[in-house]
Amino acid sequence: MEQAFFLADAELQEALAGLSAQADVWVPASDARKPGLVRFRRFQPGLTVRLDARSLVSAKEVLFPRSETLLRFTKEKDLSVPAGHRIHLDDARTVRPVVVFGCRPCDARGFLTFDPVFTKGPYRDPYYSERREKTTFVSLVCRDADAACFCSAVGSGPADPEGSDAQLIPVDGGYVLRPVTERGAALLEPIGRTAAPEQIREAQDVLDQVGRETVGEGSLTTLAEAFRARFQDPAFWHAHIDKCLSCGLCTFVCPTCYCFTITDEARGLNGERIRSWDACMFPHFTLEASGHNPRPSKVERYRNRVGHKFSYFPARYGQVACCGCGRCVRHCPVSVDIRAVVRDLPAQEEAHA
Amino acid sequence: MPKVVTNDNPYLPHMGTIREIIQETPNIKTFRIVLDDPEEMAAFRFEPGQVGQLSVFGVGESTFVINSPPTRREYLQFSVMKTGEVTRALHRLSEGDPIGVRAPLGNSFPVDELKGKDILFVGGGIGMAPLRTLLLTMADRREEFGDITVIYGARSPQDLCYRYEFDEWKAAGVNLILTVDREFPGWEERVGFVPTVLAEEAPSPFNRVAITCGPPIMIKFVLAGLKELGYEDDQILTTLERRMKCGIGLCGRCNIGDTYVCVDGPVFSNTQLRRMVSEL
Amino acid sequence: MDTLHAHLEALFDDLELVIGWETGYEPLRPTPAFLRSREDLSRLVWNPLCAPNLSVYLPGILKDAKETGKKIGVCLKGCDSRSLGALVQEGFVERERLYVVGLPCPGTVDPEALAEARKSSAPVTHVSFRDGLLAITSRDGTEEIELERVLARRCRRCRHPNPLHADVILGDPVPPRRTEPSFSDVDAVEAMSLEERRAYWEEELSRCLRCYACRNACPLCVCRDRCLAESRTPKWTTQRDGVRDKFLFHMIHALHLAGRCTECGECERVCPVGIPVALFKEKMARIALELWDYQAGTDPAATPPLQTFDPSETGI
Ligand SMILES: Cc1cc2nc3c(=O)[nH]c(=O)nc-3n(C[C@H](O)[C@H](O)[C@H](O)COP(=O)(O)OP(=O)(O)OC[C@H]3O[C@@H](n4cnc5c(N)ncnc54)[C@H](O)[C@@H]3O)c2cc1C
Ligand code: SF4
Ligand code: SF4
Ligand code: SF4
Ligand code: SF4
Ligand code: FES
Coiled coil where (chain B) (predicted)? Predict the structure, then answer.
């Protein structure tokens, strides 16, 4: 660790306030009324920042809001055209710099699933990409994995710097801030003082120790083929999915689920075209106008969710579309465990022998 | 007036105007659309089989194949069957109304690979739309292709689209075989389902490519019929349909396994179809 | 527990399958189990962590089940059994095709309260329950926590812990925590001024993700794939992320449960962002009680009040 800064616990609020002058700073925080309910919120002085707790919903809404305007349309009178009016389109948008502070490594890494899809193409999504370019992630090295976490099983880990611009490493009395990228270094410089050698040593020890931890069993990154082999095994999918309620919870809390819908919300010819979160677990998602639905029941829908993350996405982009944050497992109303489904994919021979 | 932002935003439609509307059948209308910016219209290029997203602002967008051929560029033609929210709204529009167009999107028929070949088109109902763009491309470049046979069926004579140009097709040397599901007074062409007529006509698979589009049940039997006649998988092309939103590979809904119909399709060979997970 | 296993073992030949709970990814999270063979029965668990209301699966499973003449076994807590009653009343479930195992319920755990009450946050390796105490074991040792301290809100107001409509009741009846209907949580919200109440719901509902878990977990939300909240024609709600649309969705949900909600509290339990959405339905339940002296799902022969029309009714 070459360059690092130190931020004392007591200085956290002040540092976040300082950052807020130039950027929207999102932190895990709880409300006064619900101390156990931690989610990402825009920092304001006095907010109860909870670096000690995992957020319920992922940080994806920071870059990919639940609902956002793609364009506005207005009817404009124009007697020179036959219709007597024109439609004026406006897709103007402003992008503020964003800092996501104190997310977990998995939250930052989640955006590595968005990036190839939204920033590379064949079509680049300007809304996401413009925001992404101005976002800095400061993630906290994670020391309290719970029973749902499995980041190591998808090639990440509790001290993973991938996707983060800087890391927060808990040490005695505060945090050592370690830049990972240049953007991270530029962000940190003004908010921390240079860490003392013994703080750097302590931080390095934490990093080494957490880096050695394995969160989640085995590896779930090479099962694309096993998935294809299981595709037409209804008994397998029923056994795992009969209990699923086909709601949108797992996809909405997930940092790597990016499916959306586009709708017009208007009064007559004045209004906006918006994009909002959608979920492959909803029946309407694939329902065609003819009434035909290629994924008519939760079995096909959940199979698609698993396939997308562990087979289709790897085939297209060379990586699994899951960062192992465990949210879908932890918050599923009936505890459907995607790890168990994926882990069982190859067990064909044993299961049918 | 505020300036229209024209950047590289793939969600931003181009504004166009409906020049002409043709009532093809009781529930299908054809729209001839011209982009408002003459330069944009002049520069507009596409390949047969590519689609566009038409916008009725305040209601939404839907996907339709550009069924005019790239060889004729005075207007872009779309035929729309009335089925749901957006298509109903499209049917309410009049000539002269503004309309949004995002196009061209998706892949296209491999026209160059079809050169020198005999061609068989098998279409049902609105499924004739994607075939029309390729058919007219070939008619306009007639000498590059061999025999062109079209088997086109609909429920009844009044459900056939493009009736007003059948003579033009025939004049271009197209062997046009029309069929309807049952007898109708005054109908002198074939009677029977498309797959049955296909079996009766039995066009030889030798040096021929078959291109089919229509309702799923028709496709199923046509594919079986073609196989029966000896067509290999890579001699059969079809277009797939999936519910779409973005049309640009982002919104996640149109996939069949790892294939996204909006960017990898809609045109696929039967060889490609067989490699896909079975989730049609 | 042993009686439950033994009872179902003895009967299994006459059953198509048994719906119960099994240990989930952690002993703290029992998960619904569809037990299709005798060996599967060994996976069955029953304790105050068995929160999911299994009656939600009944209409679907009965629709898909082959006609083998065998019954479908299902384990139900007190509140779950009222949901069954309502499903039977409304004709969604044929009671005679089920074998209902009623489990007198000590109350279920609110996971958030449990997390607060625990000293350790380490993954749990073992859970047991005796004499009102939960014993929770992790690598940090075993902690004993009184169930009463971590009880779910629905269970604090429960007056039907002992299942109704069961073929067999396994376990001793438990004394209900309430003998009279309790609407004190609704009262607390109603005691707020109009502005306070507005601010309260705006804040709560602003968190709603519209994931529809509350709707899909509700055993009486039987429209499922055809819900008005997602319909575009007719279009009731927009896709905007504002409280107005969320509120409308919750009003649609609540009104569709008027005189039907059996107060199992599942909608509130499953909400990932902790919105007390059951309060809306409790308000409906109170109206049904006050207007018609009606409690949904308690009498399978009764006609739900909103399915009848009686011009002589007073108070409407
Ligand atoms: C590649 C492709 C080419 C097509 N070409 C034509 C054509 O030339 N002529 C024609 O009449 N129809 C065509 N369709 C079908 C047409 O897109 C749908 O009938 C239309 O989207 C229905 O919209 P709706 O709003 O009326 O229906 P609703 O049922 O109200 O659907 C709501 C929305 O869902 C989406 N949607 C629903 N069904 C489909 C579907 N089958 N395909 C794509 N999106 C759907 C649309 O965004 C639609 O606006 C094509 C579809 C695809 C995928
Ligand atoms: S897996 Fe769980 S969260 Fe996901 S749709 Fe099914 S019930 Fe809902
Ligand atoms: S699939 Fe589940 S574990 Fe994986 S990233 Fe999404 S929420 Fe996290
Ligand atoms: S409401 Fe009653 S029956 Fe239902 S879980 Fe709670 S105590 Fe048990
Ligand atoms: S479960 Fe909660 S977040 Fe999801 S729709 Fe219901 S109230 Fe909203
Ligand atoms: S239509 Fe959006 S991904 Fe294909």
Answer: none
For residue A292, the ligand 1 atom closest to its alpha carbon is: 41
Predicted local confidence at residue C313, as pLDDT: 63
User: In 3D, which of C113, C116, C84, C111 has the Cα closest to residue C100?
Assistant: C84
- How buried is residue B207: exposed, middle or buried, by Cβ count under 10 Å (0-12/13-18/19+)? exposed
The long-range contacts involving C306-310, CB below 8 angstroms and separated by at least 24 positions, are C306/C258, C306/C259, C306/C260, C307/C90
Q: What is the ipTM of this complex?
A: 0.93
Chain A: residue whose CA lies nearest to C238: A265
Residue B161 assigned as binding residue: no
Question: Nearest 5°: phi and psi at A223?
Answer: -110, 15
Inspect the interface and report whether the beta carbons of B12 and A91 lie closer than 8 Å: yes
Work out whether the CA dihedral C299, C304, C308, C314 comes out positive or negative: positive
Ligand 2 centre distance from Cα of residue A307 (Å): 15
Residue C297 has pLDDT above 90, yes or no: no
Q: Which of C28, C124, C239 sits opposite A67 (nearest CB)?
A: C239
- The reply to whether B262 sits in an annotated binding site is yes
The residue of chain A with its CA nearest to that of C267 is A333
CB C224 within 8 A of CB C259: no
Distance from CA of A230 to the nearest CA of C (A): 20
Q: Which residues of A touch B242 (CB under 8 A)?
A: 286, 288, 294
A318 and B CB contact within 8 Å: no
Whether C239 and chain B come into contact, CB under 8 Å, resolves to no
Ligand 5 neighbour C209 (Cβ under 6 A): yes
Low-confidence ranges of chain A (pLDDT < 50): 351-353
- DSSP of chain C, one letter per residue? -HHHHHHHHHHGGGEEEEEEEE--SSTT--EEEEE-STGGGGGEE-STT--S-GGGGHHHHHHHS---SPEEEEEE-HHHHHHHHHHHHTTSS-GGGEEEEE------B-HHHHHHH-S--SPEEEEEEETTEEEEEETTEEEEEEGGGGB-HHHHT-S--SPSS-SEE-S-----S-SS---HHHHHHHTS-HHHHHHHHHHHHHT-----HHHHH-TT---GGG-TTT-TTTT---S--SHHHHHHHHHHHHHHTTTT-----HHHHH-TT---THHHHHHHHHHHHHHH---TTS-TTSPPGGG---TT----
- Domains of chain A, by residue range, sit at 1-64+96-213, 219-353
Q: Which atom of ligand 2 is nearest to the CA of A246?
A: 5
Chain A residue nearest residue B55, CA to CA:
A264
Tens-digit pLDDT profile for residues B32-48: 999 999 999 999 999 99
Q: Is the CB of C78 under 6 A from ligand 4?
A: yes
User: Could you tell me what percent of chain B has a pLDDT over 70?
Assistant: 98
Contact A179, A151 (CB under 8 A): no
For chain B, list the domains and their CATH numbers: 14-105 (2.40.30.10), 111-239 (3.40.50.80)
Q: What is the pTM of this model?
A: 0.93
**CB < 8 Å to C26, chain A:** 147-148
In terms of Cα–Cα distance, which of C22, C26, C28 is closest to C114?
A: C28
Q: Does domain A1-64+96-213 have CATH number 3.40.50?
A: no
Which residues surround ligand 1 with Cβ inside 6 Å? A 288-289; B 51, 60-65, 79-81, 83-87, 126, 129, 241-245, 266
Does residue C2 register a pLDDT over 80? no
Ligand at shortest distance from the CA of C235:
1
**CA pair distance A334, A245, nearest whole angstrom:** 8
Top mutation candidate among C203, C205, C209, C257 for ligand 5, by most atoms within 8 Å of CB: C209
Q: What is the pLDDT of residue C314?
A: 62
